[in-house]
Write a structure and sequence with these properties.
The chain has 267 residues and is of the alpha/beta class. It has 2 domains: 114 residues, Tetrapyrrole methylase, N-terminal domain (Cobalt-precorrin-4 Transmethylase, domain 1, 3-Layer(aba) Sandwich), CATH 3.40.1010; 123 residues, Methyltransferase, Cobalt-precorrin-4 Transmethylase, Domain 2 (2-Layer Sandwich). The chain binds S-adenosylmethionine. S-adenosylmethionine (SAM) binds next to α5, β8 and β10.
């Protein structure tokens, strides 16, 4: 009889399979079972060996999500069957990923587990646009915020502290609430013309992005019909776009010297 197995809670990153960690790839290739979310890209699922059992537990559009308790129980049951279980989640399992809820249930059930971090969507999307999340003189801090709220319940966030113009704000799950978020931030003192960008399916071949300002980005994202998953990055760092974007030489006369330069801050 096999002993109790182990669950690896693994971050699959934002979509690009090259952004998986080496440890994540090793665990995926060695897994007997993979329990995965909808946000895990097909290219990453293609790395799972053919004989590995697959359990999709992600919420599909227009269908009911599998209750979290059922997912927790599935992980416990599979591990107790002695399996090497990979629990694969988009981004990082402990950033808006409910990974810690699953870990807590594994502890209660006496199941061994490990956490393998992933590149969170904010980092993946920012780097895909060549944007930093912090930059000396522009952003001294960074906040990840969820824009998700219950239907008909207003978002209950600490608007005064979120409106700090020296902090980059990344809004996860904010497609539905971005207009409300922008209004509240402006009401609490964030400049209305603060640079903002919406990124859909960042780091994948279907990536789309829309640049604007705090007050325009909601309408722009809507007009562009950006599909989920989308996140919003708000802050002066987004204004570095023109300084950090490589010129396109196809049919253009752009020269390196024509480009705006970042001010180098010494000391
Ligand atoms: C439930 S949260 C999961 C976050 C994930 N654990 C992480 O660390 O990135 C889902 C939200 O993440 C953001 N997201 C995830 N992947 C993304 C991507 N490739 N491009 C843009 N946003 C993404 C979206 O805001 C989406 O609504």
């Amino acid at each position: 009889m096999r002993g109790i197995g182990k669950v690896s809670l693994i971050g699959a990153g934002p979509g690009d399979p090259d952004l998986l960690t080496v440890k994540a790839l090793k665990r995926i290739q060695d897994a007997e079972v993979v329990v995965y979310d909808r946000l895990v890209s097909q290219e990453i699922m293609d790395l799972v060996p053919p004989k590995t059992a697959l359990y999709p537990v992600g919420k599909k559009p227009k269908s009911h999500p599998i209750p979290q308790e059922e997912i927790n129980q599935l992980l416990v049951d599979l591990a107790k069957e002695g399996k090497r279980v990979v629990r694969l989640k988009g981004g990082d399992p402990f950033i808006f990923g409910r990974g810690s809820e699953e870990a807590a249930e594994l502890v209660i059930a006496g199941v061994d587990y490990e956490v393998v971090p992933g590149i969170t969507a904010a980092q993946g999307c920012a780097s895909s646009l060549n944007l930093p999340l912090t930059h000396r003189g522009l952003a001294t801090g960074l906040r990840y915020v969820t824009g998700h709220c219950q239907k008909d319940v207003p978002l209950d966030l600490d608007w005064a502290s979120l409106a700090d113009p020296n902090t980059t704000l990344v809004i996860y799950m904010g497609l539905a609430a971005i207009a409300e978020i922008s209004t509240k931030l402006v009401e609490h003192g964030m400049p209305a013309d603060m640079p903002a960008v919406a990124i859909s399916k960042g780091t994948t071949s279907e990536e789309q992005k829309v640049f604007g300002t705090l007050t325009t980005i909601g309408e722009q994202a809507k007009a562009a019909k950006l599909p989920a998953p989308t996140l919003f990055m708000i802050g002066d760092v987004v204004g570095l776009k023109d300084s950090l974007e490589l010129p396109s030489f196809s049919g253009s006369e752009a020269k390196w010297g024509d480009r705006p330069h970042l001010e180098v801050i010494n000391g």
